[in-house]
Amino acid sequence: MSPLRIAVTGAAGQIGYSLLFRLASGGLGDRPVELRLLEVPSTLPKAEGVAMELLDSAFPLLSGIEIADDPRRAFDGADLALLVGARPRTADMNRGDLLSANGAIFTEQGRALNEAAGADIRVLVTGNPANTNALVARVNAPDIPAERFSALTRLDHNRALAQLALKTGAPVTEIDRLTVWGNHSATQYADLTHARVRGQDALDLVDRAWVVDDFLPTVAHRGTAVIQARGASSAASAASATVDAARDWLGGTPAGDWTSMAVVSDGSYGVAEGLVSSFPVTTSNGRWRIVEGLDIDPFSRERIDASVAELAVERDAVRQLGLIPS
Ligand code: NAD
Ligand code: LMR
Predict the structure, then answer these.
(1) Is residue 321 part of a domain?
(2) Least enclosed by CB within 10 Å: which of 48, 247, 258, 305?
(3) Residue 232: nearest ligand to its CA?
(4) Which ligand 1 atom lies nearest to the CA of residue 241?
(5) Is residue 199 domain-shared with residue 74, that is, in the same domain?
(6) DSSP E strands: which ranges in 195-275?
(7) Residue nearest to atom 31 of ligand 1 (CA)
(8) Residue 160 sits in the same domain as residue 42
(9) Cα angle 39-220-96, degrees, rounded to a multiple of 5
C-alpha cells in the first residue's frame, strides 16, 4: 500500500507534538504514512528534535519523515494537509485579534497548496481562527475544489459529547446525532435537538435549564477554561480531535450517525454560501455531505444565526485586510 502523504504545519508546536505521534502510530488506520513537518525557519531545530523522537519510536507504519520551512516542499504531492501552525490565543486575546496575526499564513499556504498539493488533497485547518483561515486558504487555492477544505469543530463536538455523557451517565459511544453549528468560537452552538442517548431523545433526559445555563456555556467556553487552567491552549485534545476528523473524512462516519465539520456552505440551513461553517455532516470515501432536512427550532435558529453572523464579520475583516478579494 502506498503511504498516505501527510503535511503537518506547526509541527514543533504543542498540538504537533501530540498529533504527529498519533498519526504515526495508526491514528488514521493501517495505511503507512509519510510525514512532512512544516515549520518556520527559527523553529526548524525543534522540528528536528521531534523528527528524532518519531524515528526513535520505531513506528511500523511510519515510512518517511521530511522537515521543511518551504510550504511548497511540504505540500508537494500531499494527500492530506493538517494546517495547525498559527499563533495560539493567549488569555488577553479574542479570536478577532488572531485574524490579522494569522491570516497571512493561510494566504501563503493556500497558494502553496494550489501549486504543489496532490490531486487527492484534503485540507483540514486546526489553527485559529480556524473557519476563517480555511476560507482564506480555499480562496487562495482556486484550482482545488472548495469541498476539499474544512476547519476543525470536532473538538467542540467531542466536548459536547463528553458533557452529555457525564450528565446522563451514558458512555460517549451511546450518544449520536449531536451537532455543533457555526464558528469554532464562543458563539458556536452545540445542538442537542436531534441528539440521542441510547436511542432516546437527549432532551427527554436533561432539563432545559441545564442545557441553557450549564451545557452550552461549558462547551462554548471550554477553550478559555483550558487556557486558564493550563496557562496554554488545549493541545492533546485538539490533536485527538484533528485525528478523529481526518480519520472520519477519509474513512467515513458510522451508519445512522453524523459528525460536526466546518465546511464550505452551499446555502444549507440559511448559512450564506461560501462561509466555512460547522454543519452536521456524514462522510464516506473522502467526501462529506451536509445532513439535510433537520428541523431547526426558534432557539436553535437564533443561536445558529448569531454564530454565522460572526463568520460573516470575520470574512469581511479578511477582505478588508486584502487576504481574499472583495
Ligand atoms: P504553538 O504555538 O505551540 O505551535 C504553533 C507552531 O506553529 C509553532 O511551532 C510555530 O513556529 C508554528 N508556525 C507558526 N507559523 C507557521 C507557518 N507559517 N508555517 C509553519 N509553522 C508555523 O500552538 P499550538 O498550541 O500547537 O496551537 C496551534 C493552533 O491551533 C493555534 O492557532 C491554536 O489556537 C489552534 N487551536 C485550535 C483548536 C481547534 O479546535 N480548532 C484547538 C486548540 C488550538
Ligand atoms: C480551543 O478551543 O481550545 C482552542 O481553540 C483554543 C482557544 O483559543 O480557545
Answers:
(1) no
(2) 48
(3) 1
(4) 40
(5) no
(6) 196-197, 200-201, 259-264
(7) 88
(8) no
(9) 55
